[in-house]
Amino acid sequence: xxxxxxxxxxxxxxxxxxxxxxxxxxxxxxxxxxxxxxxxxxxxxxxxxxxxxxxxxxxxxxxxxxxxxxxxxxxxxxxxxxxxxxxxxxxxxxxxxxxxxxxxxxxxxxxxxxxxxxxxxxxxxxxxxxxxxxxxxxxxxxxxxxxxxxxxxxxxxxxxxxxxxxxxxxxxxxxxxxxxxxxxxxxxxxxxxxxxxxxxxxxxxxxxxxxxxxxxxxxxxxxxxxxxxxxxxxxxxxxxxxxxxxxxxxxxxxxxxxxxxxxxxxxxxxxxxxxxxxxxx
Length: 281
Fold this sequence. Notes:
Helix content: 10-25%
Mean pLDDT: 88
Largest sheet: 12 strands, antiparallel, barrel
């Protein structure tokens, strides 16, 4: 193998080792949004890789008013066998499009939601732990091509916890992506999520035992729409190979998620932020 290939291979291996260590540390955000981090540049005749690393800030549990920080990473392969096919690992969320089509999207997804255990709020901390969720599902979407590097993507993300019975989550989102001059790129997204009764009970319900231990009122959280949110990603192209991306997102908890004693102890307003340095090759 030539030297250039060896260097790329070592970079890829080191990246995945780093990601494995970060996942082992369970430093993943609670239900973090998924912004569109593709710069929109052509992948040429082969796969275009993106490797990014940075840090993020997010609530320490869903419904919390306390925030924590963690490493944030991005690994994306664009143009797997068609310019619009890709696979991406953004933090604890894997997304993809395996359909070789310029408009329709279809691919598997996976998401890891860490255990709700030790948190800053003393009452929520006294409740039983919520086991981690490993959610598997699929993405179905359609891209409206609106011009050079401009598109509107409509997507549905459906996933089910296959590890600990924490239920189903479905997210409908719309993302508009466009350039801002020659060196800036941005994406704007809105989304809403529907959660099953198992999901709502796990993250927002208060059992009789939890009520005794924490002093919170017993609460039965039913299925329904749990949040409505928006996100923004702004990217500056430093060189053809390097860029820096700032990410901001807001979610408002709704219905039984908003009314839960778990949320009343914190806030229905959930904020997320992050900064990533990305390398493309």
